[in-house]
Amino acid sequence: MFSCEDVRAALGDYMDGDVSPDIRRDLERHLAECRTCQVVYDTTRKTLRIVTEGGSFEVPEAISERLINRIMSGLTASPPDPPSRS
Question: What is the pTM assigned to this prediction?
Answer without folding.
Answer: 0.60
